[in-house]
Write a structure and sequence with these properties.
The chain is an alpha/beta fold. It has two domains: about 30-45 and about 315-455, no CATH class; about 60-260, Rossmann fold (3-Layer(aba) Sandwich), CATH 3.40.50. It is built from 18 helices and ten strands. The strands form two sheets. The chain has an eight-stranded mixed sheet, with helices on both faces. A two-stranded parallel sheet has the order 1-10. Helix 7 links the parallel strand 8 and strand 9 (about 230-235). Helix 1 packs across helix 14 (about 360-385), helix 12 (about 310-335) runs parallel beside helix 14 and helix 13 (about 340-355) packs antiparallel against helix 14 (about 360-385). It is flat and about 65 Å long.
Length: about 450
Amino acid sequence: MLKFKHTHRMTQSHPMSEPTRNHRMSKRGLSIILLFLLIASCGNMSETSKTNNKKEHKSENISGNFADGETTRSRTINYEFLQSKNTEKAKEILIVVIDPHGDGKLAVSKFNKITESFDCTIIGLNDVKNNQSGFIQKIEADVKTAKSELNLNVKYFFIAGFSGGARMAFQYALSHKVNGVLMCGAGINLQKAGNLNFPLAMITGTKDFNFIEQYYSPYSPIVKNKNILTLVFEGIHEWPPEDDINTAISFLLSKNKLSSLKENKFTEKADNLLKEKDYFKAFKMYEAAYKTNDKSAEMKLNNLLKNNKFKTFINQYEVSLQKEAERNKTYIGYLTTKNLSWWHDEIFRINKLTKSKDKLEAASFSRSKAYLGIAMYSSVNKEIANPWSKNVDKFLKIYEYLEPENPDMWFYNSVREKQKNNSALSEKYLKRAFAFGFKDSIKAKQYGLISEKLSDE
């Protein structure tokens, strides 16, 4: 067994509910699980996508449990915080940020630009994460603690999150008074978007498997709903670039008459994108300009919607999305019916198509690959509970074909080898999991892979 000693307190997460010992996953059961995945969060997956590794901005902001020796005050470990230099004004605006894995430090680091351009306080929660019961109560408790410890006089409250964190932020907003919500890498039931009593900003990557959750037709009534802003970036399922987060938060601030977006240059960007025939991004920029009260944008947006080339492109785009949905459904059925040789060849084909010169095709197959990745995580997570499973070894191999550097995949390979009493290989795979970024020592302990003494230091 590997042995770890921690120098910080860890919060134990609740494991996903496990099947009974004699469980056998049927095709129908597997399909139900994946349907749930399209609606729910991304589970307990480690961040297999590569986050933006930009250097954090050096500033005179006040921070707690956070930045490069700037902290002079010791705070609770339930949250990290970042505060603008003008602390008195910063105390009036609170932005709560939720990372799906309870990484408060990462969460606040993504909002650094906001504190440089606008007086506010950001807190990133360490004790709220995916698949955790009572998350609303935890958010409430952390906000109460932050208000007390940081002596906040909150007049405006915003909440944001990524992936499962975005879903929790939105759920919190439905039952609490908030001034705005930012959802990154996750969406909502857009049919009910018109009923929201708070402004909503959403950002997603073009290759994110949750892209479809934030997509709506350019001819949808949502386009003219100035209470909702959606932005897209070239990327996978990851925290968006700071510039996009800054724009989204600035939009929410502007809806509360706290800031303006006069310098957004959305229309100028849209004009350039249209010249490059990047129709979808041009549309999103014109839409953003219109929703931030650029007087020239409405006419340009309407002209684009009437453009026949744009109409043809959107038709092709939506046909591609429909084919993608059908393809993903077919793949789920093939998990149990196609052999490993077929999957090896198919994943090789998918990898080639993700690099297609056809941008629509490349993005679509990138999303399908990511979709299969989360499908394998869910399937393996469920099947691994049954040492006699007939599917788990096959699923693990497919998972490896898809994402050979995925830390969760190597973690579950370690669990599987332990089930087979192959301790040496189990330890080898666990080390590989940690090398690729696996961080959940508590989960590893629960599966009996490591022996550790948690320290309260």
